[in-house]
TrEMBL record, chain B:
Species: Streptomyces piniterrae
Domain of life: Bacteria
UniProtKB keywords: ATP-binding, Nucleotide-binding, Transport
InterPro entries referenced in this protein's UniProt entry, alphabetically: AAA+_ATPase (IPR003593), ABC_transporter-like_ATP-bd (IPR003439), ABC_transporter-like_CS (IPR017871), P-loop_NTPase (IPR027417)
Presence of keyword Endoplasmic reticulum: no
Classification of source organism: Bacteria, Bacillati, Actinomycetota, Actinomycetes, Kitasatosporales
Domain ABC transporter span(s) in chain numbering: 6-237
UniProt GO MF annotations: ATP binding; ATP hydrolysis activity
Protein name: ATP-binding cassette domain-containing protein
Length: 303, 288
C-alpha cells in the first residue's frame, strides 16, 4: 500500500503551471494545487507505473487538466492518447441501468445485455400490466363459475409471450427499427435474443400465476407448449407480416379455437393430443424460421 | 481508379405500389452532395435504397462497390455505412452514451473497451462529451440530432447518409451542424437530404434535385443558381407576371419568372434556381 505521505511525495506543489510550461488549451483550471512530478508523469505516460502508484496517478490525471496537458508533452503523443482513451473508456462510462446490471450479474455478456435492455416489452409498464392482467385471470378462475372460469387464463397465458414478442420489434413498436434494419447485426439474431428475453420473463410471470390456479397443477401448465408454438408461428409470420399483425393472427386464432372447444373447464387443446399438436406446430414453425432466416435482414415489405 | 462510392443506373424503387424512384442514374464521389426536392419527390426512398433499407425493383445499384440486392452485399455495405434516418427514433430511457453504445453493438463491436473508446470518440466529435450521462428524453432537439449523428459516425463509415439532419434546429445549432458535416465530408462521401437550400449552398460541392421520382438537376450549386440568371427582379408590388414573388425584409418584392423589360434584375440564389427548376408555386411551399 502507498501511504498518504508517499502519495504526497509524488506530487509537487504548484502555484500554477511551471514557468514556460504548457497550460491546458481550453480546459477548466485544475482543481488541484499539487501536480504529479515529471518523473512519475513520464513513467505513467510510458506505462511503466505499477499499482498502487498507477491507481494514484490514474485518479490524479483523470481529475487534473493541467497534468493531462503535461502528459501530452512529456510522453509520446500517440502513446499518451491511446492510454488516455483507455482510461476514459473505463472512467467516463456511465453505470448501466438496473435491467442490464441484473443481466450482467447473471453472466450475460454486456453487448447482449444492452440489446435486451432496449426491448420495449421489458419496460416496467409492460411488466406491471401483464402481472395485473394475469392476477385478474387467476381471480376469475378461483372465484368464477367452475365450468368457464379457467378460460380467460388459458386464453391469456399462451398469448401473453406472443404479445410481448410482437411489441419488441418491428416498425410499430421499436423506435430504432430503421437504424436496426441497416445495421450489420443479423436481424434474426436480434429477434431471437429479444424473444428469449421476453418469453423468459413472461413465462416466469405466467408460471407464478399458474401455481395459484385451482385444479391439478399439471393442467395449469397446459399453456406452455401452445405458448411456444404460438410464439414461433408469430416469428415465422413476421418475415412477411408486421409483427403486430402476425401476433393478431396467431393470438386471435388461439382464442377462437379455445373458445370453440372449451367446455366443463377444459379443452382438447390442453389435453395430451393438443400438447402433441402444439409441439409439432412449434417444430414446423422453427423449421420455417430457419429456412427463411435471410428474410429477417431485408426488413418488412413496405415498412 | 474508380472513386465512385455509389453508382446507380436506371434505378427504380416502388413503395406501396407507388413508383417512388423512376429509372434514375447518377454517381456519388467523395465530398458532400446535397439532395433537394419537394415532399414526395423520392428523397427518403433514395436514401433508404442506398442504406439497404429498401430494395430496388429494377436497374443497377452499386454502393461501396457492392450489390445491396445480395445478402453478402447488404452486410458489406452495412459494415461501412453511417445512416441518420429522418426520424432516428430513440429509446428514451437510454442515456446518450447508452444509445450510441447500442448502435455500436448493432455495428458488431463486441469488445467492450474498444467499443466504449469509440463511443466516447464520436460523442466528442459531435461536441457532446459532457452530455453522455444525460437521458435522451432530457436532451433538446438539437442535442438529440447530434447524438443521432454520433451514432451514425460509429466505426468511421466511408459513406454517410443524412436524411434532413437540420430539421428543427435553431440557426446556431444549424451552423454547428454545418461545420460538423463539412468536416465529415473531407475524405468520405456524404449524401445530405434537405429542404434547406442554404445548407446546400454552404456545404455541398454538388447538388441533385429530385422531383416526382426523377432527377431534374445534377451539378454544382452555382450551376443551379445560374438556372435563374436574368429571371429574378425586384418591384414595389408583386408582379402578376411572376411565377412566384415575396416581399423581402427591405420592403421590395423579389419576383422570379420571365421579367418584363427594364426592371432591375437581381443576383440569383440557389433557392431561385431551385424554384424555377421545379414548378415555382408548388416548390415555394417546400422551401423554408
Amino acid at each position: 500500500m502507498t501511504s498518504g505521505r508517499e502519495e504526497r511525495a509524488m506530487e509537487v506543489t504548484a502555484g500554477g503551471p511551471p514557468p514556460g510550461g504548457p497550460r491546458p488549451p481550453h480546459g477548466p483550471r485544475s482543481p488541484h494545487t499539487t501536480h504529479l512530478e515529471d518523473q512519475m508523469l513520464r513513467a505513467y505516460a510510458y506505462g511503466e507505473l505499477l499499482p498502487p502508484r498507477l491507481a494514484h496517478a490514474d485518479a490524479h490525471v483523470a481529475d487534473c487538466p493541467h497534468c493531462r496537458s503535461r502528459l501530452g508533452d512529456l510522453g509520446d503523443r500517440a502513446r499518451t492518447d491511446t492510454g488516455w482513451a483507455r482510461l476514459r473508456a473505463v472512467m467516463d462510462v456511465p453505470q448501466p441501468g438496473p435491467v442490464e446490471r441484473a443481466l450482467l450479474r447473471c453472466g450475460v455478456p454486456d453487448h447482449t445485455a444492452r440489446l435486451i435492455a432496449a426491448t420495449p416489452a421489458l419496460r416496467r409498464s409492460w411488466l406491471i400490466g401483464a402481472t395485473v392482467t394475469l392476477l385478474l385471470t387467476v381471480a376469475v378462475a378461483r372465484w368464477g363459475r367452475a365450468d368457464a372460469a379457467p378460460l380467460p387464463f388459458f386464453v391469456l397465458a399462451p398469448a401473453l409471450p406472443v404479445i410481448g414478442v410482437a411489441a419488441s420489434f418491428g416498425p410499430r413498436s421499436d423506435p430504432m427499427y430503421e437504424m436496426t434494419l441497416v445495421a450489420p447485426v443479423h436481424g434474426l439474431r436480434l429477434l431471437l435474443v429479444r424473444t428469449v428475453a421476453v418469453v423468459g420473463t413472461t413465462a416466469a410471470l405466467v408460471g407464478a400465476a399458474a401455481v395459484a390456479m385451482p385444479g391439478p397443477a399439471l393442467r395449469a401448465l397446459g399453456w406452455l407448449l401452445p405458448s411456444l408454438a404460438l410464439t414461433l408461428i408469430t416469428l415465422a409470420l413476421s418475415a412477411r407480416l408486421d409483427p403486430a399483425v402476425a401476433a393478431g393472427v396467431t393470438g386471435g386464432g388461439w382464442t377462437l379455437a379455445l373458445v370453440l372447444t372449451f367446455g366443463d373447464g377444459d379443452s382438447p387443446l390442453l389435453s395430451g393430443t393438443g400438447q402433441c399438436a402444439a409441439a409439432g406446430a412449434a417444430l414446423a414453425a422453427g423449421a420455417v424460421i430457419a429456412l427463411t432466416r435471410s428474410s429477417f435482414d431485408r426488413g418488412l415489405p413496405h415498412a | 481508379m474508380n472513386r465512385a462510392a455509389v453508382s446507380a443506373r436506371e434505378l427504380t424503387v416502388s413503395y406501396r405500389n407507388f413508383r417512388a424512384l423512376n429509372g434514375i442514374s447518377f454517381v456519388l464521389e467523395p465530398g458532400v452532395t446535397g439532395l433537394l426536392g419537394p415532399n414526395g419527390a423520392g428523397k427518403t426512398t433514395l436514401l433508404r435504397a442506398l442504406a439497404t433499407a429498401a430494395l430496388p425493383d429494377s436497374g443497377a445499384l452499386s454502393v461501396l462497390g457492392m450489390d445491396p440486392c445480395t445478402p453478402e452485399g447488404r452486410l458489406g455495405i452495412r459494415r461501412r455505412l453511417g445512416y441518420l434516418p429522418q426520424d432516428p427514433g430513440f429509446h428514451p430511457h437510454f442515456t446518450a452514451f447508452e444509445f450510441v453504445d447500442y448502435v455500436a453493438i448493432l455495428k458488431e463491436m463486441k469488445d467492450r473497451a474498444a467499443r466504449h473508446r469509440e463511443v466516447l470518440r464520436v460523442l466528442d466529435a459531435v461536441g457532446l462529451p459532457d452530455r453522455r450521462r444525460k437521458k435522451i428524453k432530457q436532451l433538446s432537439g438539437g442535442m438529440r440530432q447530434r447524438v443521432a449523428l454520433a451514432a451514425a459516425l460509429v466505426g468511421d463509415p466511408e459513406l454517410l447518409i443524412l436524411d434532413e439532419p437540420t430539421v428543427g434546429l435553431d440557426p446556431e445549432q444549424r451552423l454547428r451542424f454545418r461545420e460538423l458535416i463539412a468536416d465529415l465530408g473531407d475524405g468520405r462521401t456524404v449524401l445530405l437530404s434537405t429542404h434547406q437550400t442554404e445548407d446546400v449552398a454552404a456545404l455541398c460541392r454538388r447538388v441533385i434535385v429530385l422531383d416526382g421520382g426523377t432527377i431534374k438537376f445534377d451539378g454544382e450549386p452555382p450551376a443551379l443558381a445560374a438556372v435563374a440568371d436574368g429571371r429574378v427582379w425586384s418591384s414595389e408590388q408583386r408582379d402578376p407576371r411572376a411565377l412566384a414573388g415575396w416581399r423581402t425584409g427591405v420592403g421590395t418584392v423579389r419576383n422570379i419568372g420571365s421579367p418584363p423589360p427594364g426592371v432591375p434584375l437581381l443576383e440569383p440564389t440557389l433557392e431561385d434556381g431551385y424554384l424555377l427548376l421545379l414548378d415555382a408555386t408548388t416548390a415555394r411551399e417546400n422551401v423554408a
